[in-house]
Design brief:
Galactosyl_T_C; alpha/beta; Glycosyltransferase, GT2 family; Nucleotide-diphossugar_trans; 22% strand
Length: 263
């Protein structure tokens, strides 16, 4: 099965460099790696000959959904049968590609466990597993174990895989979203509505490199409201409820009969 990794990026060049190093250590190397640079021409100098770069426009609200779709289209045009999406912050464990390829089948979306790494100037890829801090709200199946998820809302786009046929069936990411939040929850809801289950794949481990974050992400408040409205219009309920509640506690947003608005 011809496998392609798709990574979208704007900045985070050190993180991308470590991801490339992780992909070079795979027990089963991907056949293709498409790096989609969103308004970031310097990515070509970072990647060199280790992957191929696809340039798309950037902008103040990064087109994450459209960029993933463009990367997938390029990979499929080159013959990919399995798409593996890997966030630029993620370093793949050495078995990630092999585990995704070994469990792949049509009409499912697979996601491996992602662990958070502590802040550091760099990481020893051989000992990443000793630093891992698995996400407490998501399953961590044993190596070789595959669990069917009970809740599609736990899907995240940091690391997931699906066959070309499944990607085509789902139609990719909805490009009405731009900037922070919503597009991955929409993708999961699309899969749920289509009867496509989400599975957790043990051994397809990825390690999320540290970067500063705001809790709640107040710098993305406008994006959360805009994308939340897009989602609510499509599916009838608002995503990112935890962030909206946190914004409300700070007096930044308020609930109306029609949803959420800036206060």
């Amino acid at each position: 099965m011809r496998t392609a990794v798709v990574t979208v990026v704007h900045g985070r060049h050190d993180h991308l460099t470590r991801q490339l190093a992780g992909l070079a250590r795979q027990t089963q190397a991907p056949d293709d790696h498409v790096v989609v640079a969103m308004g970031d021409p310097a990515v070509r100098g970072v990647v060199g000959a280790r992957a191929r770069v696809l340039d798309v426009p950037g902008g103040p609200r990064l087109p994450l959904a459209a960029a993933r779709n463009a990367g997938a289209a390029a990979a499929l045009a080159a013959g990919a049968q399995l798409l593996v999406f890997l966030d630029v912050d993620c370093i793949p464990g050495p078995e990630l590609v092999a585990r995704y390829a070994g469990t792949a089948q049509d009409d499912v979306v697979d996601s491996g466990p992602v662990s958070y790494l502590p802040q550091a100037d760099g990481y020893d890829l051989a000992t990443l597993h000793t630093l891992a801090d698995p996400h407490p709200a998501r399953p961590v199946p044993a190596d070789g174990e595959v669990l069917v998820a009970e809740d599609h809302r736990l899907f995240w786009s940091l690391s997931f895989a699906l066959t070309a046929a499944t990607w085509t069936r789902l139609g990719g990411f909805c490009e009405a979203y731009a900037g922070y939040g919503g597009e991955d929850t929409d993708f999961a809801e699309t899969a749920h509505a289509a009867g496509v289950p989400l599975r957790w794949v043990g051994g397809a481990a990825a390690f999320h490199q540290h970067h500063p974050v705001s809790r709640p992400p107040v710098e993305h408040l406008d994006d959360v409201l805009v994308n939340g409205r897009v989602f609510a219009d499509r599916w009838g309920w608002w995503p990112m409820q935890g962030w909206l509640d946190a914004f409300a506690e700070r007096g930044l947003v308020r609930r109306t009969a029609d949803g959420w608005v800036a206060a």
